[in-house]
């Protein structure tokens, strides 16, 4: 089974639109709700949705996987999830579910985006994903859902299946593990 190679793409709102929203940027968006003066700018970029009855949660996340090989993917079924790198960059891998089975990633449509410091992404619920760095560790601010985090942490710590998230190993699907490249 040959190893698929996936080229890491530059982040843009258009390219990321099938998976969610690209966030932020250095330039003030005068067309958005906000304000600018010589001392600061603020502007609207996204209305985060933690899902019905969801309590939005800020999570601090460190990423250290620099293998650039996609061995597993994760999806959260109730909430959007935003990731904003702080002081570094990440590579965000995203993948839609199969048309006939959203609970299984459609690996033919897997993509990877470079998310630089000062930008971010917010994924739609059900977006299969995983994250990498090029070297070292990148700390990120994450917006997610309180119950999803508690459910996922309990599952990862206890070895049980999560209810609000799914994690699949590509090998268990009989799929090759893509390698990311610039
Ligand atoms: N906490 C949590 O949900 N983490 C994962 O979704 C992830 O992408 O890191």
Automatic annotation (TrEMBL):
Gene3D superfamilies cross-referenced by the UniProt entry: Ureidoglycolate hydrolase
Keywords: Lyase, Purine metabolism
Catalysed reactions, semicolon-separated: (S)-ureidoglycolate = urea + glyoxylate
Coiled-coil blocks: none
GO biological process: allantoin catabolic process; purine nucleobase metabolic process
GO molecular function: ureidoglycolate hydrolase activity; ureidoglycolate lyase activity
Record text on subunit structure and interactions: Homodimer.
Protein name stated in the entry: Ureidoglycolate lyase
